[in-house]
User: Fold these one by one.
Assistant:
Number 1:
Amino acid sequence: MAPTVKRDRGGKWSSDLVLNLYSNLLAELWEVVSALIGEAILALLFKLAIRKVEEKYPFLGSIDISEEGFSLDGVKEDCRTVAPLEIHRGFQGLINQLSQLFSALADGVINKELFPKVFSKVKEAERIISQK
Amino acid sequence: MKLIFKNLNVLRSTINAISTSMEVKEIVEAAGNNLPNLFDFSSFGVFWKEDLLLFLYQEESCPPDFTQEVVKNMINVFSILGEESIPGERITLQVEKRKLRPKQMMMDPKATLKSHLTLPLAAEGDILGCLSLNSDQPNAFDAQDLQFLSVIGYQMAAILKHFQRYSSIKDMATYDTLTGLYNRRFFEERLEVEAQKSFYSGIPISLVMVDIDFFKKVNDTFGHTDGDQVLSKISSLLKNSVRKKDTVARYGGEEFILILPGARLEESFVIAERIRRLVENTLFEVGKAHLNLTLSMGISNFPNHPVKSKEELIKMADQALYDAKRGGRNKVCIFAKKSSQWAVPT
């Protein structure tokens, strides 16, 4: 299923819409991967991935991660002045980092499970957001 | 369905075996003995960061190059996870080889690492190490294998965290945090054992009480931080000047005590005198200054001094130390009934 992103009235993607899109994608990723490796390890990997990308995309440092899951509330505050495409690039970078970590840990086992549910949607999001 | 029940049973017994293990090696063996019933693998590894130990439980026909690849891969994954590089040469490798495959399926001597599952051993947000399943076959593991391995990993991490806590509590109860020497509590326990052994068998035992002369002046002049550095330096001199079987402990403040099991009075005097000279000839760096320091020491010995308890032995060494101080310091005194005999440094 294609990501449910809608244009705002001006025909552009608002920051909130991009954040919602990635909030849903990350929630799916969390659900799939936590079933494979558990919440505690996944939370560690999320934190590690964020540390690697937050220098370039500081707003990602506001993602709140715990074993219970993640929250983007802090990011929403920080992203008021960030361009939607920049937000998209940041989250794309985060998902790439996670994917690299999953590969390092388990060859293709995790990414294989994620591909149909998450990665295909990231590619679709890239296509839609870049269209504007 | 039957297969899942069988696997869950194996998983349950693996977790039970891990939970009752008393040391890291036992954990690896407990897991290793059960894992062949869950996975097809060539090598199973556990890396424990605290002791830089890497245990491998692997098929007996594993070629050395394959083992090296597994080690390299585990260290690499751990370095990514822990964000710190671990020098391979500092790691102690322990390999346990077992027959995991029938003879006709022995590994090719040129086999290489084709697939692996490596997970961090994480507890309370700390990465304690990692565990890894490895195979010479491509795509050897699937999502269910990963789920099972993660359950085993969580249990292992919880037990390792428990070991870590236990070991730090044990350290606190045994060692003096400033000097790294044994603490007074441990000294009392050790002396009890050694003294009883000597009183029972007649084997000699000596006690040397040591005090740094005019140490208060060091603290008053340079401050406690520099004073602490002097204590640490003298502690390591003491530690390096005795035999392996001897015990060096911090008795309190700037006082130390040495238990010399099996040492006759003359031998203990030689050891004490050697230490006294060593300290006298050492230039201590305190802040930007260089200092000369000296030690006073008192010796008691069984059977030369007819004691019936460890307390008496301590009291006599303390009395001899007092005499060394009173006699002008920088001396080694042996307890004597009326006043301690003291040796003039030459």
Note: Helices of chain A lie at 15-37, 39-53, 73-78, 84-106, 109-130.
Number 2:
Amino acid sequence: MLEVRGVHKIYGEDPGGYVALENISIDIRAGEFLCLLGPSGCGKSTLLNLLAGFEEISGGSVSFDGQPIRGAGRDRMMFFQDAGSALLPWLTVEENVRFALRVRKIPKAKWDGIISTYLSMVDLDNHRTKLPSQLSGGMRQRLQIARALAVEPRVLLMDEPFAALDAMTRRRMHAALIDIWQRTGQTIVFVTHDIAEAIALADRIAIMSVGPRSSFMRIMDVEAPRPRDMSNPVYAALFSEIETMLAPEIQRSEERLG
Amino acid sequence: MSDTPYTDRTLATVAARKKFWRQYQGPLLAALSVGLSLIVWQVLSMTLFDPFLVPPPTTVATSAWPMILSGEIFQDVWISMTRVMVGFITGSAAAIIVGVLIGRINVLHQLLDPVIEMLRYLSPTAMIPIAVIWFGIGEMSKYFLIFWGTFFIVLVNTVAGVWRTPIARQRAAECLGASRFQIFFFVVVPSAAPFIVTGMRVAMASSFMSIIPAEILAADSGIGYLLQKSSMLLQTDKIFVALITICILGFATDKVFRLIVERTLSRFTANSSISP
């Protein structure tokens, strides 16, 4: 569905610029949950921005259903880590969702039904008239999810959406996200630097090396039923395998970023 | 045992006093600040300073009273306020329109910014001589000078506000399906609102500072003219009446401005930044 072929991303002038991504290729299948995993500075957010169409590729091709990606598209919805800046802080919970329905030109008669459906899906039905500033971090992130789902995108691009949340809230958000994903059948590309988070969520994990010239080190399948119990030794083995693979990368990342 | 009710009552009194103090601390101390200043002024005028050069508050009040009764002072206040408001409102409106365009359209910014960066050092006072030649000493020259001062302050703040609109907010709206036009009006302009309001408050204060020299040098009415006339006639008491009037006007206008903003724009200004 999303085809990434030999993609390069260079910032600045072509010779001498910073090569962020080099020769990235992956076919993202319809309905799959793909995690892009890697330490800071590995270009995973860059790749996500290329998929969203926010930035232009420097080489190779990215296509969506066979069409090259040019600019942001309504079928590919980006999620931001900082829900506070992605939401419209002067609108209430339900007005934020209504804004999405208005710009998407969905007939007014359907608005109330859609708003109720998605706000109750993320458990915000009782907070409709609150402003984002009156919500907790987890609630704001759930509102961002409800607002995005309300316009029924086919692909969700999530840029470390739960990184700023506390561990308990993050686990609840994981369960909610998996639940929604299983119900809607959308395709999810999820960026994280947290190995456990990738194992808990993904069908496939694409592990990225540290830049410059980031690329996929390996793409692993996680074939396990959900919900996943993290105390299962299979996951512990997978965790240490990935950790060993990433250890030199993390060290390079720390050296590079100081 | 018999002590208990007494102790309770004492505690209740202390608690009530504390509550009273918490509630009225601000206004009480503000009144004290003004009151003490007046007393110090009065004492200094009667001892250290020449009461002709620095007339004490009592003299100033005695001079102000007939000016209030005859309505003379209000006429000047009205004239100056009208000039400030006309210049301030038109200047703000123009600056907001130009500011959002410059903030959004990079070519426009590169084209206009160098000129703006130089022109904004021309204070309204520097523009008085040419304004008099262009517009005479009538109302138009004062409107122009206040407009001039307001425009650049609000403009710089508006551009900053547009630029500080979180990129995530614009991209999220774009993904949802908003057009460029919708992103501009429903995302960028409201995000810039707190900056615009701050710029307008600064411009308001600067307008009150600019109107006085404008009226001193080129007017036959208004508070500045009252200052100028009183100075020629060596009426120090009237000069002080005019000075205090300016203080009260500026203070009151800012309070009213903030009240209006709170009533109408609180959603935009109170919730502009949220930590994750």
Note: Helices of chain A lie at 44-52, 83-86, 93-103, 108-121, 137-150, 167-184, 195-201, 233-257.
